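Notes from the 1:1 (GR / supervisor)

We went over the backlog. Supervisor wanted to see one worked example end to end before approving the batch request, so GR pasted a single chain during the call. The sequence is below; no edits were made to it. Supervisor asked that the structure be written out right there so they could see what the output format looks like.
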Amino acid sequence: MQDEQRLTQQNDEQVVSPSLRNQRVLEYLEDLWKRPHMPSQEDLKRISEFVVSLPEEYRSVGLTTIANHFVNNMSLHMLELMATFQQKAEQEGISSRECKKTFDKTLPKAFQVLAALNTQASVQSLDSLVALSNITIALYTLSWSDSAEEAQSLLYELPTMYYERLTQENLVVKDHKSAPDDSATAQPSKSSDWSSYQPMQGYIIPERGMTEVTIPTQKVSSSSPVPVETGKILFMPAA
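Structure output shown during the call:
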């Protein structure tokens, strides 16, 4: 009898609620993610140099793999905006009802885009990789936010804007139901033209060699240059 009671007590002690287990797993991941696990700029350049030297049947897969690195970072950025909005809404006086309304309106489209990006990104050349990098890093920089109000506005705009920009450059492969417009030009785009890129420090200026990006939030005006933090990498030139 005592053995049964002892065994029951041990089993009860071993039972961990799902929420507590999730918290422990997240704490473990937080510690694990402190270790180096992301390629540096030098690594990306070295990898790209190797990939472009490969035969054609391997090159496109390699370039798309590099492109997915940037696409995945943008996808994580969109999730980060959702988390920022949820965590800081109450602090900024945004009601729980408005939070629910915002998520109800934005999550279906946002996660549709995230799912599509996981399978549809496609890069066939080094110029295409430049175009994708320009679009991704420019939008990432301009859409960074640490307030619920800004994040809320970006959730309505950023997923669709990013996907449409990639679609315009033929950097995603859609299914037949949502195939790109046949009238789209196949000429080199502004996004992939990097040869004369000389930015003014601290600003994004719509000149040759850059992707001009305007995000319609309350903080950013579409009629003036957009200030960004000095020292941030906005564009990746071809290797």
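Supervisor's comment: Residues 38 and 69 are 10 Å apart (CA to CA).
Batch request approved.
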